[in-house]
Amino acid sequence: MVYVIAILAWVIDQGLKWVVRSHLLPDQLVPVLPPAFYFDYIRNPGAAFGILPNARWLFIVVALIVIVAVIVIQRRWHLGVFAQVGLGLVLGGAVGNLTDRVISGTVVDYVYFKPINFPIFNFADVCIDVGVAILILTALLGERQGRTSGRASTPAEVRGEADE
């Protein structure tokens, strides 16, 4: 399930970015749901909020580490449905922005929330944020079902608190 969600997130992300690149000019403000949401096409050479604009290789390495971590977690743990969705969204978002960085050195951002002048972002960013939020919630609520031992563990067994 993790990989299916990741592929769907990546396809949607790259499709939206293609539409933006094909139909908008840079810095062209297009109302989507005025007065709140607009499309505003920019090429972001940095990370969130445009920080570290000249650190392309750092972001590529970080994305690769995230991808490897997701794969390791997915293979090592029996995950519940929500955790799988969270991992899939993080993986798809990371691969989406990594694709942009490798091909052009910048990330296509296009969603602008005007009322609070929020920095422009993209679908991959949303996937990463929502995926991380889901993972935090599932960790707090104890959805994880245990290691790959072949049986589901209780939350106490996962924490090492089970009676022996």
From TrEMBL:
Q: Which reaction does it catalyse?
A: Release of signal peptides from bacterial membrane prolipoproteins. Hydrolyzes -Xaa-Yaa-Zaa-|-(S,diacylglyceryl)Cys-, in which Xaa is hydrophobic (preferably Leu), and Yaa (Ala or Ser) and Zaa (Gly or Ala) have small, neutral side chains
Active site at 109, 125
PROSITE patterns per UniProt: SPASE_II
- Record InterPro entries: Peptidase_A8
Q: Name where it's found.
A: Cell membrane
Write down the membrane topology.
Answer: Multi-pass membrane protein
Keyword annotations: Aspartyl protease, Cell membrane, Hydrolase, Membrane, Protease, Transmembrane, Transmembrane helix
Pfam families the UniProt entry points to:
Peptidase_A8
Q: In which pathway does it act?
A: Protein modification; lipoprotein biosynthesis (signal peptide cleavage)
The EC number(s) given in the record are 3.4.23.36
Recorded GO terms, molecular function? aspartic-type endopeptidase activity
Which residue ranges does UniProt annotate as crossing the membrane? 55-73, 80-98, 118-141
- NCBIfam families cross-referenced by the UniProt entry: lspA
Q: Which HAMAP family match?
A: LspA (MF_00161)
Q: What does this protein do?
A: This protein specifically catalyzes the removal of signal peptides from prolipoproteins.
The Swiss-Prot or TrEMBL record describes its family as follows: Belongs to the peptidase A8 family.
Q: What is this protein called?
A: Lipoprotein signal peptidase
Q: Which organism is it from?
A: Alicyclobacillus cycloheptanicus
**What is the organism lineage in this UniProt record?**
Bacteria, Bacillati, Bacillota, Bacilli, Bacillales
